[in-house]
Q: What sequence folds into this?
């Protein structure tokens, strides 16, 4: 009953915040928000009785989160240097508690590319955005909540045959001002035929209090488009992160997505990739590292809708302390999706007896001429390898951290460009005891 | 160099070494032979500092100092080297970086300056040539995808670089063809010196045709059943290990 009461409090706080938001804005936007909020109210918050949320309870979010974080009149004095990608010359868009911060951003410009905040895009081309944002029928749970509070985020459009030379870096910062509040950024990406780009969604938290970042990213890849996508989740230790990445791929398009999830008290990542055009391919790689009482849940779903598509998925987790990980990887091969080539694996390294992982690879094949493989492993550090390294003069802790690092290193090595790869490697090393010493060995 | 006195070691409830006495002086090569399960590899691992063994009794002195309390990495830095029977594959760690880290850990312990990348590369290439090893070994992950012979050669290369005072070879000959065996033996012989001692653990006498020992000890059921000169190894080749069991049974009767 306590749970129900908490959830009711959460709902009434949302309703209040929503009424305040809907007091202004354009009609269509207000209608979209209202429709999405109705969807949210009908689904409510997910519970463990919902199969997709079986291992991840959201009671803490209901208990700690009230309304929506507002915009700050002046951009706060923040040192963003630790989060920037030196050397990569990115188009940088900064969001503070979900609101675009023009004074902190350096979006630059590139021919054939629109690199704008969502609020600006809505103001400038409302009709175009209405088309992309108006449909709320399929939404539920946190995605519906995100649409209900639709306000800001990023709008990235790359014209056909355009190659973006530098990556787009979306940096979402949660500050102290968002204590007990939520941000609902929305990212829209449309890539024209045969265009190429790199996109980094980077979530950081600078404050030591509970807050929620509930994000939805929609990506549309036209024929032959190629996107390198990277999600970095570094929320604060008491933060909550719920993120949804939805990708629609036309023929011969390529998605290469990497996810590094390190922060937050509780993080949930949903990825849905629809291979809807023949010859399209997607790679989903992910690394999650948990410690203390952290909980990180990765739910991915790859939908082979048409024939001759390829998917490669590899997630690896390192779990320490009393933390918990969840991996649920669904690969669906529809009846007409002949000649599908799908591989999926999930490997986990448990560093303590109290750490736990629930892993569930899920292949659903309705076509008969396909090549599909999947597998999951859970293991501990190889003590033979630890002894081998120690017998060569390497200290015990360095040996353990080195082996832990090399467990996920193979996935990090695949990340491009180099400045981003180095950043990810540094973030992982920083999580390991004696990480600095390990750096000399890799 | 190495003094083992009445060493008794158990794994779980099982006593593996039941009172070993052995003295190895600098400049000597000792062969430890014996049938499977006699405790040869356990002795090698205990000397190198592997965890999971319970010392029931006895002591081991290395250069006059108690050895058994030291962690494995300190022993390595102090000049003890174990060539593994089954060298471990370490994906993601490049061979050359491990070699360099190992060499510098030893040098630092000795109070010597650490080697920079250039000096180290010259040093390692010279040693590799002596072992007929291709340079691409350096840039592969440690032991990953190496053949059995390549792994053993990599062990000997590490030994050649680390210049240990006490080298323990645990069944280095197992799984080697005769050519690889000769290369490995040659690598060991090049390192023989009046300051250095070797403990060569082997099941077969074949290796000892190429690494000629000063002393041979036969382990059986956790004890040194016999010690002698090189001729003892040759005798074993003739008669096998069956006499070991008989003698023990006879002794008990």
A:
């Amino acid at each position: 009953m306590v749970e129900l009461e908490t959830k009711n409090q959460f709902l009434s706080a949302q309703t209040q915040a929503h009424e305040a938001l809907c007091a202004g804005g354009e009609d269509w936007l207000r209608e979209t928000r209202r429709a999405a909020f109705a969807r949210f109210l009908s689904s409510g918050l997910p519970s463990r009785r919902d199969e997709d949320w079986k291992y991840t309870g959201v009671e803490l979010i209901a208990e700690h989160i009230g309304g929506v974080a507002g915009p700050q009149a002046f951009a706060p004095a923040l040192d963003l240097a630790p989060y920037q990608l030196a050397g990569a010359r990115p188009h940088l868009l900064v969001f503070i508690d979900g609101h675009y911060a023009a004074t902190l951003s350096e979006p630059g410009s590139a021919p054939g590319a629109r690199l704008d905040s969502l609020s600006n895009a809505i103001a400038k081309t409302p009709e175009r955005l209405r088309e992309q944002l108006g449909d709320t029928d399929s939404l539920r749970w946190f995605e519906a909540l995100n649409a209900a509070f639709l306000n800001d985020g990023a709008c990235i459009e790359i014209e056909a045959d355009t190659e973006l030379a530098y990556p787009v870096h979306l940096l979402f910062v949660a500050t102290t001002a968002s204590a007990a509040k939520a941000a609902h950024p929305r990212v829209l990406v449309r890539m024209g035929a045969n265009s190429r780009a790199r996109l980094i969604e980077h979530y950081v938290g600078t404050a030591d209090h509970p807050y929620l970042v509930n994000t939805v990213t929609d990506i549309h890849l036209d024929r032959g488009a190629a996107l390198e996508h990277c999600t970095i989740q570094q929320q604060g230790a008491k933060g909550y992160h719920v993120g949804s990445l939805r990708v629609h791929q036309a023929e011969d398009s390529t998605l290469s997505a990497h996810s590094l999830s390190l922060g937050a008290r509780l993080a949930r990542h949903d990825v849905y990739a629809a291979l809807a055009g023949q010859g399209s391919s997607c790679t989903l790689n992910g690394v999650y590292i948990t410690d203390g009482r952290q909980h990180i849940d990765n739910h991915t779903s790859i939908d082979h809708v048409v024939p001759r598509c390829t998917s490669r998925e590899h997630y690896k987790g390192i779990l320490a302390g009393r933390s918990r990980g969840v991996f649920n990887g669904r690969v669906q091969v529809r009846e007409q999706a002949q000649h599908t080539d799908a591989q999926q694996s999930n490997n986990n390294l448990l560093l303590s007896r109290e750490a736990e992982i629930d892993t569930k690879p899920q292949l659903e094949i309705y076509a008969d001429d396909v090549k599909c493989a999947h597998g999951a492993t859970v293991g501990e550090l190889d003590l033979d390898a630890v002894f081998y390294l120690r017998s060569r003069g390497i200290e015990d802790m360095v040996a353990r951290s080195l082996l832990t690092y090399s467990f996920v290193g193979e996935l990090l090595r695949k990340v491009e460009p180099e400045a981003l790869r180095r950043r990810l490697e540094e973030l992982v090393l920083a999580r390991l005891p004696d990480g600095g010493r390990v750096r000399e060995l890799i | 160099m190495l003094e083992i006195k009445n060493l008794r070691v158990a794994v779980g409830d099982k006593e593996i070494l039941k009172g070993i006495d052995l003295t190895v002086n600098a400049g000597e090569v000792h062969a430890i032979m014996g049938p499977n399960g006699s405790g040869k590899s356990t002795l090698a691992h205990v000397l190198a500092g592997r965890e999971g063994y319970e010392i029931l009794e006895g002591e081991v002195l290395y250069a006059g100092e108690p050895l058994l309390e030291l962690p494995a990495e300190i022993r390595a830095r102090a000049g003890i080297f174990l060539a593994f029977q089954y060298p471990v594959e370490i994906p993601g760690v490049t061979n050359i970086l491990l070699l360099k880290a190992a060499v510098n850990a030893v040098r630092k312990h000795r109070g010597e300056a650490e080697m920079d990348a250039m000096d180290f590369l010259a040093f390692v290439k010279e040693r590799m040539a002596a072992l007929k090893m291709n340079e691409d070994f350096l840039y592969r992950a440690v032991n990953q995808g190496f053949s059995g012979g390549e792994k053993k050669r990599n062990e000997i290369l590490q030994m050649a670089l680390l210049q240990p005072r006490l080298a323990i070879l645990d069944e280095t000959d197992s799984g080697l063809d005769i050519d690889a065996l000769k290369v490995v033996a040659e690598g060991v012989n090049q390192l023989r010196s009046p300051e250095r001692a070797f403990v060569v653990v082997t099941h077969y006498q074949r290796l000892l045709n190429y690494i000629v020992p000063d002393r041979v000890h036969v382990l059986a059921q956790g004890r040194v059943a016999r010690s002698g000169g090189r001729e003892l190894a040759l005798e074993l080749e003739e008669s096998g290990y069956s006499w070991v069991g008989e003698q023990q049974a006879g002794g008990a009767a």
In short: The two ends of chain A are 52 Å apart (CA to CA). Chain A touches chain B at residues 382-385, 387-396, 399, 402-403, 405-407, 409-410, 440-442 (CB under 8 Å). Chain A is about 25% helix and 35% strand. The longest strand of chain A covers residues 196-205.
